[in-house]
Amino acid sequence: AIMDIITFAFFLIFVGVLLWKGSDLAWKAIKLNQKSPSAWGPPLWPIKIMIPLGALLMLLQGLSELCKKVIKLIEGGEPQ
Question: Distance between CA 35 and CA 39 in Å, rounded?
Answer without folding.
Answer: 10
